[in-house]
Amino acid sequence: MTIWYGGDYNPEQWPRPVWDEDVQLMNRAGVSLATVGVFSWARLEPRPGEYDFAWLDEVLDLLHAGGVRVDLATATASPPPWLAARHPETLPVTEDGVRLSVGSRQQYCPSSPEYRERAGELVRRLVERYADHPALELWHINNEYGCHVSRCYCDVSAEAFREWLRERYGTVDELNRAWGTAFWSQHYDAFDEVQPPRAAPTFRNPTHLLDFERFSSDELLACFRAEKAIIRAGSSVPVTTNFMGFFKPVDYWSWAAEVDVVSDDTYPDPADPGSPAYAAMVRDLMRSLGGGAPWLLMEQSPSAVNWRAQNAAKAPGQMRAWSYQSVARGADGILFFQWRQSAAGSEKFHSGLVPHSGTDTRVWREVEQLGGELAMLSARSGDEAIAGTRVASRVAIALDWHSWWAIEQPASPTEVSYLRALGAWHAALTSLGLVVDFVRAEGDLSGYDLVVAPAHLVATDAQVSNLAAFAETGTLIVGFGTAVLDEHLHVRLGGYLGEPLRRALGVWIEEFAPPAAPDLANAGGKAAPPLALAGDVVGGSAFGTAWGEYVRVEDAETLATFDDGALRGWPAVTRRRTGTGSGSGSGSGSAWYVATLPDPESLRLIAESAAREAGIELPPAATRGGQVEAVRRGSALFVINHGPDEAELLVDGTDLLSGAQAQGLRLASQGVAIVVAEANPE
Amino acid sequence: MTIWYGGDYNPEQWPRPVWDEDVQLMNRAGVSLATVGVFSWARLEPRPGEYDFAWLDEVLDLLHAGGVRVDLATATASPPPWLAARHPETLPVTEDGVRLSVGSRQQYCPSSPEYRERAGELVRRLVERYADHPALELWHINNEYGCHVSRCYCDVSAEAFREWLRERYGTVDELNRAWGTAFWSQHYDAFDEVQPPRAAPTFRNPTHLLDFERFSSDELLACFRAEKAIIRAGSSVPVTTNFMGFFKPVDYWSWAAEVDVVSDDTYPDPADPGSPAYAAMVRDLMRSLGGGAPWLLMEQSPSAVNWRAQNAAKAPGQMRAWSYQSVARGADGILFFQWRQSAAGSEKFHSGLVPHSGTDTRVWREVEQLGGELAMLSARSGDEAIAGTRVASRVAIALDWHSWWAIEQPASPTEVSYLRALGAWHAALTSLGLVVDFVRAEGDLSGYDLVVAPAHLVATDAQVSNLAAFAETGTLIVGFGTAVLDEHLHVRLGGYLGEPLRRALGVWIEEFAPPAAPDLANAGGKAAPPLALAGDVVGGSAFGTAWGEYVRVEDAETLATFDDGALRGWPAVTRRRTGTGSGSGSGSGSAWYVATLPDPESLRLIAESAAREAGIELPPAATRGGQVEAVRRGSALFVINHGPDEAELLVDGTDLLSGAQAQGLRLASQGVAIVVAEANPE
Amino acid sequence: MTIWYGGDYNPEQWPRPVWDEDVQLMNRAGVSLATVGVFSWARLEPRPGEYDFAWLDEVLDLLHAGGVRVDLATATASPPPWLAARHPETLPVTEDGVRLSVGSRQQYCPSSPEYRERAGELVRRLVERYADHPALELWHINNEYGCHVSRCYCDVSAEAFREWLRERYGTVDELNRAWGTAFWSQHYDAFDEVQPPRAAPTFRNPTHLLDFERFSSDELLACFRAEKAIIRAGSSVPVTTNFMGFFKPVDYWSWAAEVDVVSDDTYPDPADPGSPAYAAMVRDLMRSLGGGAPWLLMEQSPSAVNWRAQNAAKAPGQMRAWSYQSVARGADGILFFQWRQSAAGSEKFHSGLVPHSGTDTRVWREVEQLGGELAMLSARSGDEAIAGTRVASRVAIALDWHSWWAIEQPASPTEVSYLRALGAWHAALTSLGLVVDFVRAEGDLSGYDLVVAPAHLVATDAQVSNLAAFAETGTLIVGFGTAVLDEHLHVRLGGYLGEPLRRALGVWIEEFAPPAAPDLANAGGKAAPPLALAGDVVGGSAFGTAWGEYVRVEDAETLATFDDGALRGWPAVTRRRTGTGSGSGSGSGSAWYVATLPDPESLRLIAESAAREAGIELPPAATRGGQVEAVRRGSALFVINHGPDEAELLVDGTDLLSGAQAQGLRLASQGVAIVVAEANPE
Question: What was the ipTM of the complex prediction?
Answer without folding.
Answer: 0.96
